[in-house]
Amino acid sequence: MRQIPSLLLQLLLAFLLSLATLPLHSQNDRTLVDSRLALFEREFLTEYEEHVERLFKAKEQELDQKYSQALDRVLDQSVKAARLEEAIAIREEKKRTDEGTAVPPVDGPNDPQVLKQVRATYRIEHQKLETEREISAGPVFASHDIRLETYQTLLTTEGKLDDALKVKEARGNAAAVLQNRRASKGVIAAPPSTTTPATLGVADQGEGWHEIFNGTDLTSWKPHRTPRSFQVSDGVLSTKKESKDPDRLFFAGDVAVPEQLKNFEMKLTIKADAEANSGIYFHTIGRSDDDNGNPETGLEISLMKGKGVIQYPTGSIHGQGPRRPSPVNQADWFDLRFRVENQKVSVWINDEFYYEQVAPFAGSSKTRGIQPEGGRIAIQAMSTEGAFHFKRIAVKVLE
Fold first, then answer.
1. C-alpha span between 173 and 168 (Å, rounded)
2. How far is it, in rounded angstroms, from Cα 324 to Cα 197?
3. Cβ distance 340 to 282 under 8 Å?
4. What's the CA gap between 127 and 60, in Å, rounded?
5. Which residues of 31-62 are buried (b: 16+ CB within 10 A; e: fewer)?
6. Which helix H or strand E contains 220, and what residues bound it?
7. Residue 91 to residue 93: CA distance in whole angstroms
8. In 3D, which of 388, 145, 112, 108 has the Cα closest to residue 276?
9. What residues are paired with 321 via a beta bridge?
10. Looking at residues 77-94, what average pLDDT do you find?
11. Helix (H) or strand (E) run with residue 315 in it
12. What is the distance between the alpha carbons of residues 214 and 220, in angstroms, rounded to a whole number?
């Protein structure tokens, strides 16, 4: 027998009580059935609006505000760089957005790349909201179906088979009813799915996490020297140096996460080839290199796999420590998470605490250390033989 959740049971009892107050036999049974079906449909749409659509619209409005702010940032960059056509295109996009026009589903051939990147991030985040909406709509659909199923059973036991068939048809049309309601409001969306959603990624597992690698290309990222050092294939980003000096891939910001980060958490799912060297830079300022071709500023969470004694093992701060071995076999996928809060840097490997230490402040905007206003993050490509591989990269911005 199907288990009925407690909230749905309360709705069912209320429905049965309402049936007790209505006549079961009438010369106008057909009109009575139509009236009840219309009543159930109104209740269904009201519950959906109250428990699903209202929350979705609030989150969508918040996302739209972040999109507008992201457009402000890239517009300011284009203006400062004197890229006239690019700046005009971004300004027009912001004007349309502020007037309530939706982000276009596809990009035009002449749209600037920076605008395409910001739009792509918006579309990813908006799709997540739509998935959440489908999941939260499940209980509302179940409640509506139980009401109709109960009524269908009652009509069947009374021998009113044609009326029972009409109710059965209404049960099958519930998703279409909702889709028509959305269309009448100018909302084009698929009806909620009845299938079980796939396992959600790290960005969905806690409030504030956002995926910043889309698994397809380098949208929202900018190589320092050459994109050949950063290849994307089958949902995996691989870093292997294809230039004379070490290369790095800067995160350029998107609609959910700014380019400049001060206090934040970052989580990556990683594995490495037999001989590989990489790292995660944070609090970098500018693009200047030191004598070894590495950033002049910021700090680096080391990623290192190889033979012999490794000076700064995976998870340690390069040049700072600690130097104890990494607790995982890096040939297999593992999770690395680190948090930067003012000067305190904390690191976890596979959700096991690895270490915590106070990092030094930078003496200037051209020295290594914690920057008072934060800085950019970047992924290093250091080795020429093996590569480090990333299949998930997420950030949570902290206050």
1. 9
2. 40
3. yes
4. 10
5. ebbeebbeebbeebbebbeeebbeebeeebee
6. none
7. 5
8. 388
9. 317
10. 94
11. none
12. 9
Position 189: which residue type?
Answer: A
As a whole number of angstroms, the distance between CA 276 and CA 264 comes to 26
Residue (of 36, 2, 42) closest to 22 by Cα position: 36
114, 222 Cβ separation under 8 angstroms: no
Domains and their CATH numbers in the chain: 6-198 (no CATH), 204-397 (2.60.120.560)
- Give the model's pLDDT for residue 175: 72
- Classified as helix, coil or strand, 276 is strand
Q: In this predicted structure, what is the pLDDT of residue 329? A: 85
361 in Cβ contact with 368 (< 8 Å):
no
> Is the four-CA dihedral 128, 132, 138, 141 of positive or negative sign?
negative
Bridge partner residues of 68 (DSSP): none
Residue 203's pLDDT is 40
Burial of 397 (0-12, 13-18, 19+ CB in 10 A): middle
User: Does residue 12 surpass a pLDDT of 50?
Assistant: yes
pTM: 0.56
**Residue of 309, 312, 369, 302 whose CA lies nearest to 338:** 302
Q: What are phi and psi of 79, to 5 degrees?
A: -65, -45
- What string of DSSP letters covers 85-135? HHHHHHHHHHHHHHTTPPPPSS--TTS-HHHHHHHHHHHHHHHHHHHHHHH
Segment 153-189, tens digit of pLDDT: 999 999 999 999 999 988 888 777 776 666 555 443 4
Residue 315: C-alpha distances to residues 87, 190, 304, 355 (Å):
40, 43, 9, 9
d(CA 205, CA 220): 22
Residues pairing with 230 in the sheet: 239
